[in-house]
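Quick question, first post here. What does this chain look like in 3D?
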Amino acid sequence: MEGFEEIQHKFIDVNGIKMHVAELGQGPTVLLVHGFPELWYSWRHQIRFLATHGYRAVAPDLRGYGDTTGAPLDDHTKFSIMHAVGDLVALIDAIGGDKKVFVVGHDWGAIIAWRLCLFRPDKVKALINLSVQFTPRNPGQKPVQRFRAAYGEDHYICRFQETGEMEAVFASLGTKKVLTKFLTYRDPRPFYFPKGKPFGDAHDTQVILPGWLSEEDIDYYTQKFDQTGFSGGINYYRCFDLNWELEAPWTEAKINVPVKFVVGELDLVYSIPGNKEYIHNGGFHKYVPMLEEVVVIKDAAHFITQEVPDKVNKHIYDFLQKF
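> Answer (accepted):
Ran it through. Tokens below.
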């Protein structure tokens, strides 16, 4: 963790949980919301960059992750989008008083950030979302049903549904191997988790860490996931259908805050059939009318905050400067 000593760590009581927050800098608040399987630590490069450029960076561990405690890991219904957004609203109130904040989300953090803007636009000055675009609710089909129909039972979202099953698979592989496989994954094709070979064709291949991910980084993630297990993170996936039910009142609702969207060219989410057309041909803009820019980063995959931090930092900073 060399060089991160200046980052301050604190615990804030929000929405019935004790949320661990990493913070650095002074100025307008930028809330950084991580995804799976990540932590506040996934924003380490952005935290320092923002702090040295006149912003206050605040990066929580989401419920079920890292040093945040209080969410019942054995009850996935306590990981619904309403809980996740409720946590952020309470956090914004705790750190910013009655002021709006800037928000940057990645992966599941992006999904949650979209809903934060949908449910409580009064809390958000502007949003930069990475990796996962906003997709309107389809009233005719539940999300897991949709993934199952498109990709079959072995798709990771389908495999994540059964309580305890993936936890057992991950335990048999070991935390470090699981995290290394996830964080270095660069294949834009659909992500399959066949039984007996959880990482598909790449399951048995030796991972050589890329230059942007050190042994020390992996060790930090491993230590924290050894502490919590994977249930918290996987529970968000188990709420896909529950969220779909809860979001019925927002069917056809639009995101009414200024937005910039950044995605890696090799991101597996960007590569889902139909997504590129939706993002670039007007569908995305229809539901996010204040979408100011879409950026595709060449040769970058899913974990862009860590893989290409300088590019991501510049895109965040350029957008924040408009306000």
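Strands lie at 8-14, 17-24, 29-33, 56-60, 101-106, 124-130, 259-264, 291-297.
The longest helix spans residues 81-96.
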